[in-house]
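User: Can you predict the 3D structure for this chain?
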Amino acid sequence: MLHLTSIETIIIFSISFRAMDWLIAPFEVAFVQRAMWGGLLVSCVCALAGTWVVVRGMAFLGDAMAHGMLPGVAVAALLGGNLIVGAAVSCTAMAFGVSLLSRSKRFAADTAIGLLFVGMLAAGVIIVSRSQSFAVDLTGFLFGDVLAVRTVDLWYLVAALAVSLVIAVLGHRAFVALTFDPRKAHTLGLHPKAAQVALVGLLTVAIVASFHVVGTLLVFGLLIAPPAAAVYWSDRIPVVMLIAALIGGFSTVAGLVISWHVGTAAGATIAAVAVGTFFVSAILSAVRERFGRAGAASLAALAALPLVGCAPAQEPAAVEETPHGYVAGAEEASEVQNRLVVADGAGGVRVIDLLTEEVTELPDSGSPQPVPSGARSPLGTDGSTGLAGDGRFAYLSSGGQMKIVDSGGWTVDHGDHRHYYRAPIREPGSVATAPVPGDAGSDVPYETVAGAYRDVALSAVVLNSGTTFVFDATALGDGVVGEPRRIDGIAVPYAEHLVVTDRAGRVEVRGRDGSAGQVQAQTCPQARGQAVTRRGVVFGCADGAVVVAQRDGGFVTEKIAYPAPAADRATEFTHRPGSTTLTALAGRDGVWTLDIRKKTWTRTAIADPVAVNTAGEGSSLLVLTRDGVLHGIDPVSGTETAHVAVSSGPVEGRPVISVDPDRAYVNDIRGRKVHEVAYNDNLRVARTFEFDIAPALMVETGL
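Assistant: Here is the predicted structure, written as structure tokens:
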């Protein structure tokens, strides 16, 4: 009898605990749990249909129908409809066409399938080619996005499984007869033609349900591989279906675990595991036929030895570790949690979730504090109020107060991968701002927000006076505002430092704690406007722009001068987060484009611009003019490529064009609306959000 010492027992339990933690850790995240349930449901649906595909040799038909979904998905995406509905319509049309052409006696059925396959695929590619904005969605369509499965998608899959079960049960006898002897099926009154249509319908349901998980190119990983592997272990159709469902479920769970720890694409990993189970089944079946069951069992045990050797090293005790990417109080998501924070400048603040379109109303802080006699009322239509975002928090200044809003959506960029988070929307608190030094009689009597930037440790809010408030980013995430550190100058967090430009024009790289650092060679006189790009921090200066970048462990500066002395200098930069192409207004008859990579300024003439932005190098300039028309301008030739009206009349206040990797957002203050514009699709207005307040101020978060 084997007796274990206490130390050995501890070691065994430690190894077991670490192994279980390795397996369970991925499923502690909500979106991975949804992915698992989605994969399990798809595995069951594919087991029902895939068994008949394998038995009847219908793989080519399945492949054709999978690619035949592309036109429907493309049209649904362009119209803003449900992709699953579009896929179902297109796949049904494909199935109908196959059934119709297969009746011809002039050519074999596979010829008809091949023609429809190519025709539907070509139609889908043509539709996609007409819309550049669909390129991102195409990747998910081809390769799947199992980690983006939503709760509503799970209900679709439950419905698909119910329909598949009904078809499989009611049509079982007819399917069997059709598989082995169609003429006898007709003699028995089992209606083989109707059975063929039902079988194609079952295949359609399975493909439509699967494409969101593994995509069309990988759909056979779950549709073909599990049933093909199951055939090695049974010759009874119901048993094959059951084994196929179990293999598909195992492939889903194993694929998600491997994807989580190795960092591979989840859908492709699931499909690869499913195909791997087929080859393992084929090898074990061959060994069983040659050496019997004992030989197969021995081979399986031998195959498991590498897994035992890869077990965690022996440790005296288990140490609980924080899962990678874990953030207390937040839920990790599978996609960017885009939010829009809008304010009317008089206390009203709304936060809209761009994924769910849910609007959250924050408590009205009441009317702003009185401003000196003769100053303008802070209604967000002049310089008396300001709103800026650092990717998560929005900072609203009005009447001597700066309110901080936690939008509840943000992204953490680790370079080679990103984490997306969502948390409750809330208002951590506010801080007082001071009157603008020496401007007691100014139209803008108080310091207002001009920009906000954040890294893992600091959140810096730049004010119009050239002063910066620096907050503890971790404390803000916990809902604690605290007393900000005030820096006399424009300060931006970058590369674990603070890059500061003071009123004297000196550029300095300081420590995060504000300690003195390295003074740069270039100066920035009359600094106004700043931005953070992939190539460094940019400051707008009277004579051009200064770029501060980290290179070889140090910091360097470079001046990008205006092509000629500029009377209308850039004072506020706009750009897509991370992009190296910046834009700015250039007076009343033009806009500036600053290309950091090419180190060039370009001035584009356009009458009466009030807002400008761009998605990046090579993308059109988006310019809103005073008449309420949004123009797409070719950045090279300066010619207009598209335009769309986004306001019912002349633009009021200070409009905003916010640009992210997929869409642009334009606030219509007069109409109390925000328009979502597909800037790569001829400025098509994809959605319009209506508010009960005038969205005089707007910022996008979650990026």
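Residues 159 and 209 are 10 Å apart (CA to CA). The mean pLDDT is 78.
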